[in-house]
Amino acid sequence: MPSRTDLQRELTAIYRAAIAAVEPALLVGRALDGATSASREVSELIGAARRSFVLAIGKGAHPMASELQRQLGAKIVRGLAIVPPAPRGQATPPGIQCLRGGHPLPDQSSADAARAALDMLKEMTANDLLIVALSGGASAMFIAPAEGVTLEDKVATNSALLRSGATIKELNCVRKHLSAVKGGNLVRATAAGARIVGLILSDVAGDDLATIGSGLTAPDPSTFSDAIAILKRRRIWGRAPERVREHLEKGVAGEVPETPKSGDPIFACVTNLLIGSNRTAVDAAAEEAARIGFAIERGSDLKGEADDVGRDLAHQLAKMEVPRVCLLAGGEATVTVRGRGRGGRAQQCALAMAITLSQIAPHARLAALVAGSDGIDGPTDAAGAFAFPDSVARATSKGLDPATALKHNDAYNFFDSIGDLLRVGPTGTNVTDLMIGLANY
Q: What are the E-state strand segments in 349-416?
């Protein structure tokens, strides 16, 4: 029987294969190779442009901008990559200016980066092409508050939404209606007639273009009324900054323009191409798991409260009866923060999973990994955590109470105490989370 270390190694290998498949430069290269009808259209638009500008935003911005610069070279008049804190030794692509943006909460650097991007757009003419390369984290890293709203107002509202357990779609609806660039407003800020190509690496379930990066280049179906309803539903409206409430109410009254909707003629010059998603990663994980001898089962999507998702996954895994089966799932759970512990949604999900496995299958040959594809789960140095049927027993022997850790959102310290955290460092990509489960190994 394989040891726990062996199982962690196998789970990590499957995880790394999934991450390799969504490497941003690889996906940008495929988008420009002309091998499909969609990539041919993008390739032709780029080839026809007299001058090209590049705006890359998100955790994959650096490799995406680097690949664009490598392929297009002198055709790029100016480029801007808005990146998270850069790993050491990461060289700036020639002709591309790199600026840092705050994440997971926006900060002054996010506003400075957006201002620099808007200044760049002023240099464009109707004959130019703007390539917008979007990846996970773009919403927080690119901030231009709407008139009358301050950066502090946006940070306070965003923080309250995150703590409330709001979904990414809810977060982005509110963000778009407090922004001068999100929800398609970036298209409004670009020279009329200029072509825009969006190369989009999805970090949201369902790959909704209006949600990824808060829909910088996509029509926005949501409204000011929707944003207010979300803040009320999440019990934030009454304590939201006064300027936020005033701005949203003006929007409902028609005193502030709505975000551009589908059918708006400004989108006639926009071509958006989805270049990768969570499904890309899960498919690659399935290929690697099959290569090492596992039968493949697809589990339910990771959505809803992390505690509930973890429990459900534990039951799905425990029901696996086929020898050497790998259960795979992807998506993004949410956490309603009630405690002051350390952790992230993947670790919270893994803890709920471990607790349930200890109850329903304490002696079964089961193992799982829940981890973020970006290598960073919440404000921690871990990508996620491994869950075993004996995780609870091992932690209890060290004096830890798993139920208390779950209640206080302290999964990081729980798993750290038993050596079951996955630490891989920032991966430079983001396609939400992965769950890899092994049964009857």
A: 366-372, 384-387
Amino acid at 370: V
Q: If you ran DSSP here, which 8-state letter would residue 145 be given?
A: B
Kindly report, residue by residue over 113-129, the tens digit of the pLDDT.
Answer: 999 999 999 999 999 99
What is the rounded distance in angstroms from the CA atom of residue 206 to the CA atom of residue 200? 13
What structural domains and CATH numbers belong to the chain?
A: 4-14+279-439 (3.40.1480.10), 23-144+179-222+259-276 (3.40.50.10180)
For the chain, report the end-to-end CA distance as a whole number of angstroms: 8
- In angstroms, rounded to a whole number, what is the distance separating the alpha carbons of residues 204 and 136? 8
Q: Three-state DSSP class for 419?
A: coil
- DSSP letter at 322 equals S
The rounded distance, in Å, linking the Cα atoms of 290 and 284 is 10
From residue 370, give the alpha-carbon distance in Å to each of 71, 287, 354, 439.
Answer: 36, 18, 11, 15
SS3 content of the chain, % helix, strand, coil (to 5): 45, 15, 40
> pTM value?
0.91
Give the closest residue to 429 by CA, choosing from 241, 294, 284, 260.
284
For residue 169, count CB atoms less than 10 angstroms from its CB and return exposed for 0-12, middle for 13-18, buried for 19 or more: middle
Cα distances (angstroms) measured from residue 197 to each of 28, 39, 43, 392: 12, 11, 10, 50
User: Which DSSP letter does residue 327 get?
Assistant: E
Task: Read off the tokens for 65.
Answer: 């901008």
Residues 332 and 345 sit within 8 Å (Cβ to Cβ): yes
Averaged pLDDT for residues 317-337: 95
The torsion defined by the Cα of 287, 291, 293 and 298, in degrees rounded to 10, comes to 0
Other CB atoms within 10 A of residue 397 CB? 11
